[in-house]
Amino acid sequence: MINADRLNLPYTSAEWSLPSSRKVAITSLIVTESAMFSIFVVAYVYYIGKSLTGPYPAEVLETPIVSTICLLASSLTIVLAERSFKRESIGAFRLWWSTTILLAAVFLGSTAAEWKRLIVDHHLTISTNLFGTTFYSLVGLHASHVIVGLTLLTLVLVLSLKKSIRKADGERIEMLSWYWHFVDGVWVVVFTVVYVIGR
Amino acid sequence: MVAANPEIPLARPLVSPSIVTRLHGLVVTVDHKKLGLMYIASALFFLVVAGLMASVIRLQLALPNNNIVAPDTFNRLFTVHGTAMVFFVGMPIVAGLSNYLVPLMIGARDMAFPRLNAFGYWMFLFGAALLFFSYIGAPGLSGHGSAPDVGWFAYAPLTGRAFSRGNSTDYWTLCLLVSGIGSLSSAVNVIATAFGMRSPGMTLMRMPLFVWMMVVVSAMMFIVIPPLTAAQIMLLIDRFLGGNFFNTQSGGSAVLWQHFFWIFGHPEVYVLMIPGFACASEIIPVFSRKPIFGYSAMVGATTMIAFVSMGVWAHHMFSMGMTSVGNTFFMISTMAISVPTGIKIFNWLATMYGGKIRFELPMLCCLAFLFQFLIAGLTGIMLAAVPFDWHLTDTYFVVAHFHYVLIGGMLFCIFGGIYYWFPKATGRMLNKTLGLWHVALFFIGFHLTFDTMHIPGLLGMPRRIYTYDPGRGWELLNLITSIGVVFQIVGIACLAWNLIRSLRKGEKAGDDPWDAWTLEWATTSPPPEYNFETVPPVRSARPLWDLKHPEDPDWKYE
Amino acid sequence: MQFNIRSSRAMITRALFMFFALGLSASPVFADGASSVTNIFKPDGPPARAIFDYTMLVLAVCAVIFVIVVGLLVYTVTRFRHRREDDGQEPPQVYGSNQIELAWTVIPIIIVFVLTLVTARTIAEVQNAVPPPKALKVTVVGHQWWWEIRYPDLGVVTANELHVPVSDPAQPRPTFLKLESADVAHSFWIPQLAGKTDVIPNRDNSMWIEPVTPGTYLGNCAEYCGTQHARMLIRVIVHPQGEFENWVAAQKPDSATDTNLVAAQKPDSATDTQVKAGRDVFFSTSCVNCHTINGTEANGKFGPDLTHLMSRQTLGSGAALNTPEKLRAWVRNPQNLKPGCYMPDMQLTDEEMDQLVRYLLTLN
Question: pTM here?
Answer without folding.
Answer: 0.92
